Amino acid sequence: ATYSNENRLASFLVFVSPIFFSLLRSKTNIINNLVIIILILITILLLGSRFNVLAFALIIAVMLFDVIMSMKSRLKIFLISSYILIALLSGSSLINKISQDSAGRTFQEQLDRGGKEGSTAIRIYLFSEGMRVFKESGYMGVGPGGMEVNTPYGTGTVKASLHNHFVNLLATYGLVGFFSFLYLYVVLIKDYYYLSKIFPSSSILYSLKLFLIIFPFSSSSPSDMFSFRPFYFIFGLYFVSIIIYKKMLKEKREKILYSEHD
Asked: How far is CA 147 from CA 100, 102, 159, 160, in A?
């Protein structure tokens, strides 16, 4: 209730949901976490935040795939094939539903109206405007507070956010800002891949995996991430967690080294 609009509240709930999914996977407080997950899903559906619904569905899809991959059944290949087939059949229907605007117009109907009405069409328009601003700034960005885009009907320019974090980075901070964030993102992926082999049962590392997968989708829901405090909180949480796990690993190796020396 303290957020300025529905998309911000839904994004916050989706950002923290991987934590509850990972705890559910580790069978920790199953009933409590299951209730929280159901409440988050109901809230997102009531808020009508379509990109966050897609992100939530993606979490479930990834977890189901991981369950199938961990099976040692002879039917594993059949289950994987069935899963992929169901995902392809249901995925197109889900994306078509999500691309509808609040008036129920499909994406094609939004394009038929000139691509200037409807949430999905407007996001695509803002994407193209963001890339235009990025190029016209000499690939250096216009800086915070300097974003101005043409209105869809050509009546002038307005200050606006682009509903896409990566395009926002390019248009606001240029290539330097974009690649700086991309570097941090890749570092998290690399650290997860390395540490998950050593701590395979870690709930926080599994939640990091889910978050990294859904972030590109969920980050397209709020108008921008720069003023969205949970964005900094969640990334900070995972970076601190990675540091703690690396410290644990270092202490573990030192103990082994000392025991071998003794």
From this structure: 27, 26, 6, 6
